[in-house]
Amino acid sequence: MTNPASKPASKPAVPAPAPRSRSKRSGSQLTPEAIVQASLRIAARGSSDAFTVRRLGEELGADPTAVYRHFRDKDELLLEVADRTLGEVLDSIRPGLGWQDRIRALADGSLAVALKYPAVASAMASRTTRRANEFRVVELILGAVTEAGLRGAEAAVHYRMVGDSLLALVGQRAAYLLFSAEARAADESAWSREYRLVDPQAFPQITAVAEELAGVTQDAVYQARVEALITAIETSVAQHR
Amino acid sequence: MTNPASKPASKPAVPAPAPRSRSKRSGSQLTPEAIVQASLRIAARGSSDAFTVRRLGEELGADPTAVYRHFRDKDELLLEVADRTLGEVLDSIRPGLGWQDRIRALADGSLAVALKYPAVASAMASRTTRRANEFRVVELILGAVTEAGLRGAEAAVHYRMVGDSLLALVGQRAAYLLFSAEARAADESAWSREYRLVDPQAFPQITAVAEELAGVTQDAVYQARVEALITAIETSVAQHR
DNA sequence: CACTGTTGTCAACACTGTTGCGCTCGACGG
DNA sequence: CCGTCGAGCGCAACAGTGTTGACAACAGTG
């Protein structure tokens, strides 16, 4: 079952409270924590090395299938890793910010981890973990839109708008990073080239701003998308009064 | 060929003007068109049947590897299929609409094909085809933001904002559809259940709107996200004057 | 007729995630 | 101290995936 439905008891894993030192087979013992760390290390390698179970075993110096003693499947591991990084993002958000800056901080933090661990962010782009830290995100965004002035159903739908949009934004950017560096470079240069070679008759608008199109940076687009979310909230607040 | 993207001779395919009737091996001959159509048929089956090359061969009544005589790899086939459906979306947009309605029409049409062919839309969520119809989309969005009142770099970055956001939105929704129906149902009911079971002390905002959160529909979120794009453009226009 | 190039078939390769079987070793009861 | 037990790991294997190269059958051309 690789679906997003996992009600049954999730983690016996390490039942004993005692850390029980190092022991077992040869030197280093395999813990969920170690597996998560190794996963992050692999995910950080980005496009140069895909995130696969076998690669994970290699990184751990253990047999790949040993991972399945600690996680039901790869999906559950990804969920755990994603929730972990999400927790770090949340912890890094300073309290006391205005609601706009809290959303910006959430976006910036999420983007940062997405750029650092593209494989993880990409895999989570269209799902939810339903784990502890995700509820913290819900709480954070809901707090922001409430502080902005939205209530009830209006607040709920705007939370979803912001949450889904951020997830999509970050996932999209991460997935793009999973292409090889050469492929990305080729893609970008191809775009700016073809903008200029377009038939002016058929595509007058493109021709008019071909230079500017070639000069648009990913960061500028990111900024615009985040600000669009904030603007949408502000506009909705202004309308409902 | 008024399209901008075809430098390396891409498709000899059917060089002869004569349709050369039916011939070849046993009865039906395999054409790129037939392959695209079969792909669409499979993609329309959604989560019940993954879009794989072997399944495609089955659908065609031919060996799976025969596809590689007409497309370099699966990716190129997906690009072609995606561009095809995108063309239909564009053709369905009535001219003469205001710029806002043109963006809404593009979004609605894209969502419609994404819901119909989730596998295709999902695969295209974080890439671009750089094919003919994609340039038509660029032209359409650029025309809209220009009509709204944006120029130069401002128009360019807003085009990217709208384009990337729509792609992400549609891809996200499609990817969600690729989960099995049961998994999706379980996921949704789990969310609405857990919203209500959350600790009121730790998550006051969630508790306050738990009911409303459970009642938010995908369509409402979609609407909000599209309107957010339009609002962002309008706001930017108002600011730059 | 022979020749050539196109196109479908078949077997195979290099991967992927995942499972069942056995072995080893640490921990625990007596 | 010793025997038993069970958790944790390695190994081999399975069912999938996309893709390639060799082979064969046919169309059109000289």
UniProtKB/TrEMBL annotation, chains A, B:
MF-aspect GO terms: DNA-binding transcription factor activity; transcription cis-regulatory region binding
DNA-binding region: 52-71
Keyword Transcription: yes
Sections of the chain in a coiled coil: none
Region (Disordered): 1-31
Highest taxon in the source lineage: Bacteria
InterPro entries: Homeodomain-like_sf (IPR009057), HTH-type_TetR-like_transc_reg (IPR050109), HTH_TetR (IPR001647), Repressor_TetR_C (IPR004111), Tet_transcr_reg_TetR-rel_C_sf (IPR036271)
Low complexity bias (residue ranges): 1-13
GO biological process: negative regulation of DNA-templated transcription
Keywords, alphabetical: DNA-binding, Transcription, Transcription regulation
Pfam families found in the cross-reference section: TetR_C_1 (PF02909), TetR_N (PF00440)
Domain HTH tetR-type: 29-89
PANTHER family (UniProt xref): HTH-TYPE TRANSCRIPTIONAL REGULATOR RUTR, TRANSCRIPTIONAL REGULATORY PROTEIN
Protein name: Tetracyclin repressor, C-terminal all-alpha domain
